[in-house]
Amino acid sequence: MKKGCFKHIVYRYSGDQNSDEVEFDGSGKLAFMTGDIISRHGKSWRIESVKQEPGSETLMGLPTYWVYLSRVVAN
Prior knowledge:
mainly beta
């Protein structure tokens, strides 16, 4: 994902659309790559995919990045 632009980020956990969690990246520094492991709410998650939607008037013209996550369980 390209750095340097303000954006909305929607995290979707384990494919559950009811789990969507929205954040605003005001610094433009958050970047995600498929396969990366991130920590959210004290748990580890693997980024399965990242999809970008162009900005729209309803979201102040900012792009939205959908970050699809799957739970990582350590053995």
